Structures are given as C-alpha cells and as structure tokens.
Amino acid sequence: MDNSLTLRRHLPDDGWRIAIEHIARRHGLVPCEFEPYAMGESIVWRAGEYVIKLTIPQCAYQIVAEVDCLEATRGKLSLVTPKLHSHGDLSGWPYMIMERIGGCPLSEVWPQLDHDNRRRLARNLGSFCRELHSLPTRGFPGEWAPFWRAMTTDVGKRHAGHGTLQTLVGCIDPFLAKVGELIDIDLVPLHTELIDQHIYVDECHGQFELFGVIDFADARLGAPHYEFGSLVEFVFKGERGLLHEFMLAYGVSEDRLTSRYSETLLAWSLCHRFSNLGRTLAILEPLVPSSLEEVATVLYSLSPF
After folding, report:
1. Mind listing the domains of the chain with CATH numbers?
2. CB-based contacts of 153, cutoff 8 Å, min separation 6
3. Interior CA angle at 292 toward 288 and 293, to 5°?
4. Are 77 and 176 in contact (CB under 8 A)?
C-alpha cells in the first residue's frame, strides 16, 4: 500500500489518466468525464457515473476482497454499497469498476452538525454495525487466528515505528497485559475502516441521514470489537455521549459501559492493523495525556453526557 500511495503522489494526474482512460475504453464507459479522487492509497478516479480503482500487484488481495465483499453485501444492508460493474488487470495491475453512490462523505457535513444530530447518527451507526456483523460470512475473506496473533505481537514496537510519544508507547504492552487477552468468540463480517470518508450521508427532510458505505478493500472476517476503533478516532473523537449511543444501539447493555470497558476498547484499537498512537493523540490536543488509562477515559468515554 505504501508503494501505491507514493506512486499516486509523484506521478502527475495526466499520467494516471492514460491508464484510467484505457480501462474505461476497455469496458465501454467512454465518452465520459474523468476526475481523480484525492484521498486513499489506491489510484481512484471518477469515470462518469462509475468509479475505477487501480492498485499495485502487491495489493491485488484488496481488489479481490472488495469485489467479493461488494457482491456479498449488495442489497443486504440498509445502507447502499457500490454496485460492482467489472474487474480485471492492466499489465498485471488489478482494477475494479463500480457504480458511484449518491450522497457525500460524512466528513463534509459532520462539522456543521449539532450535538443532538451527531448523537442520532451515532445511534444509527451502531444499528448499522449490528446489521453488518449479522450478515452471512460468505464472501468475507481472512483467517482470523493468524492475523490476530500478528496484530497482538510486539504492539508497542509497531507504534514506536510511527514516532509516537515514547513515554506512552512504552506503556502499550503493559497496558495490554493489564487489560488481558482480547477475545471475541464469534467471527463476523467486518468493514475494518469505518471512517468519516467511507461513510456517506444524504439530506432528507432537512437533516442528514446515513446513506451508504464505500471501500471494502480491507474488509474481512474477524472479531466484532476490531471494528470500533476507526469510528472512535475518525468520527466520534471523544465527544461525550456519542460512543455511549453507538454501543447501546449496537446491542451492548448499559451495565457494561464502564471505565473498564473503555480501556478494553482502546486495547482493541491499539492492536488494529492501521492504528497509530501518534495520530490518536493528535485528536486530544491540546491535552497531553499522562497515561493510556487517561486516553481511554477521554477518547473512549462511555458516559451518556
């Protein structure tokens, strides 16, 4: 993925346009307007009413996963997911074509929403996650046991590689030991990256409602708790009451919403494949937490108010 990101940043858009236009012609999408999307690690362009995603051969597994997951979720969720058009490869580079969904990313409207509307959307996100995690597992890739062993090994070293605050990095492994082994008995379909740019909303009767979800490139079978960290970091950001509403709607009982559970949720997040403690701490600025317990108390607060 890092190679894809580097290439996207250093090759001019006109260079990528040649490849994207070739793919579009191959599948009969031209004439149409082309426009690159600025976010993400893959090469993603709008081609009229379609989206073309192209990535490096080393990340072919992401295209395979997204193709399978879009087929597995299509029409089975209350939120829209992109309809797969076709997929293939261009000189060994895998690609997929899907229909564009309506609405806009949650990131574009979240800052203008008041607290009550954010709580409402947090509840709706909890209901959606419960729905996603209740889907049949067929089509979602991944062997969980070896993956989770890798994610829970030398966690502190992984975060140190990001140049995060060293005093807190040194606390990660002792913190995880204190929380205890992280186990979910049931494996469920996971998106794994429910961030504000992958969740789409649309305006309805004067207020924004959840509309769709995109980017299943890293979707997999796994433990339900693995899903929640991205929502906390990229959507809720420690705003009081939001995680509480989410968890209740997901189906967690009120009596479980304790400080101990906040620490457990942080522990799961620290073990996430894409977790970065330095990025997490930036959310809390200007607060400089003195411990991971304080991070859990502030960022993973389960208080209703």
Report:
1. 2-99 (3.30.200.20), 104-299 (3.90.1200.10)
2. none
3. 105
4. no
pLDDT surpassing 70 at residue 3: no
Q: Which residues contact 250 (CB under 8 A, 6 or more apart)?
A: 126, 127, 129, 130
pLDDT tens figures, 78-103 = 999 999 999 999 999 999 999 999 99
Cα angle 223, 132, 5 (rounded to 5 degrees) comes to: 75
3-state secondary structure of 4: helix
- pLDDT reported for residue 4: 46
Share of the chain above pLDDT 70, in %: 94
205, 241 Cβ separation under 8 angstroms = no
Q: Give the Cα separation of 189 and 180 in Å (integer).
A: 24
Q: DSSP for 21-82, please give it.
A: HHHHHHTT--S--EEE--SSSSEEEEETTEEEEE--GGGHHHHHHHHHHHHHHTTTSSSB-P
DSSP string, 127-172: HHHHHHHTS--TT----HHHHHHHHTSSHHHHHHTTT--HHHHHHH
pTM: 0.93
Q: Taking a C-beta distance cutoff of 8 angstroms, is the pair 73, 135 a contact?
A: yes
Determine the average pLDDT of the residues in 118-130.
98
Q: Long-range contacts for 104-108 (Cβ within 8 Å, ≥24 apart)?
A: 104/200, 104/201, 104/202, 105/196, 105/197, 105/198, 105/199, 105/200, 105/201, 106/196, 106/197, 106/199, 106/200, 106/201, 106/235, 107/196, 107/197
pLDDT, position 16? 87
